[in-house]
């Protein structure tokens, strides 16, 4: 297996040379989970003066939980601003996952705007090939997509780590409030133990009920 290359700022710098005053790296977390919110992280950098990103920064999926916990505050300190927007399990059931990615992204942009980021003069860099953010916005923004940006672009890798740590902490907290589903370890994803717990205890308000196929799984807890 070939080693995974560290992210760089080459793409962000190219956007800066093309006129971007700020670049907002964006990544989502929790898209495929059975329980808990979907989260969209955003990290803002100046592509002409980005500074040095933390050593070891990578896409959150390539890092251990302990390493993410170390890197998240370092990533937040490196960027000019960061935010995490959420859309709840109930919203995912009601609106669908793609619409909720946009909703969570819109909420993250709102946080950045409230903190002083000029989002209208920024280029928003989305991981992947699909612009799921624009349909949720009332004011058009400059949005670009890039496949594997979470792996290759440091701003997007930072957003991935910040969002993952934020959501993981929420799921650990929910596990202490609603025990029995193993959310502290599975973070709401579909592990066999999680499925067994749903069949035994029923679904909670934090489950995406439309994603659960078995009638036994969507029964109310006893």
Question: Can you describe what's shown?
Answer:
With 222 residues, this protein is an alpha/beta fold. It has helices at residues 10-17, 65-78, 89-95, 97-114, 149-152, 154-177, 183-186, 192-201, and strands spanning 22-29, 38-45, 81-87, 122-127, 142-146. The chain has a five-stranded mixed beta sheet with strand order 3-2-1-4-5. α2 (65-78) packs across α6 (154-177) and α3 packs across α4 (97-114).
Detail the poorly predicted runs.
215-222
Q: State the helicity in percent bands.
A: 40-55%
* Straight-line distance between termini: 48 Å
Query: What would you call the shape?
Result: globular
Specify the biggest β-sheet.
Answer: 5 strands, mixed
What's the SSE pattern?
A: HEEHEHHEEHHHH
Average pLDDT rating: 94
Number of strand elements: 5
Widest beta sheet: strand line-up: 3-2-1-4-5
Helix/strand structural class = alpha/beta
Strand content: 15-25%
| Number of H- or I-type helical stretches | 8
Whole-number radius of gyration?
Answer: 18 Å
């Amino acid at each position: 297996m070939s080693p995974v290359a560290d992210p760089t700022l080459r793409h962000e710098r190219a956007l800066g040379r093309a006129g971007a005053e700020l670049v907002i790296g964006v990544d989502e977390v929790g898209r495929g989970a059975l329980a808990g919110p979907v989260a969209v992280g955003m990290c803002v950098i100046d592509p002409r003066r980005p500074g040095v990103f933390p050593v070891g920064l990578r896409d959150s999926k390539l890092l251990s939980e302990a390493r993410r916990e170390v890197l998240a505050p370092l990533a937040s300190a490196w960027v000019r601003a960061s935010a995490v927007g959420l859309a709840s399990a109930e919203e995912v059931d009601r609106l669908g996952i793609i619409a909720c990615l946009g909703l969570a992204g819109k909420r993250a942009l709102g946080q950045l705007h409230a903190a002083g980021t000029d989002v209208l003069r920024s280029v928003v860099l989305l991981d992947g090939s699909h612009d799921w953010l624009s349909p949720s916005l009332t004011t058009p923004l400059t949005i670009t997509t890039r496949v594997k940006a979470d792996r290759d672009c440091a701003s997007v890798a930072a957003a991935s780590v910040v969002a993952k740590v934020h959501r993981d902490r929420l799921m650990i907290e929910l596990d202490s409030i609603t025990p029995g589903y193993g959310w502290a370890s599975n973070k709401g994803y579909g592990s066999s133990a999680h499925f067994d717990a749903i069949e035994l205890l029923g679904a909670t308000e934090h489950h995406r009920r439309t994603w659960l196929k078995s009638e036994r799984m969507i029964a109310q807890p006893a």
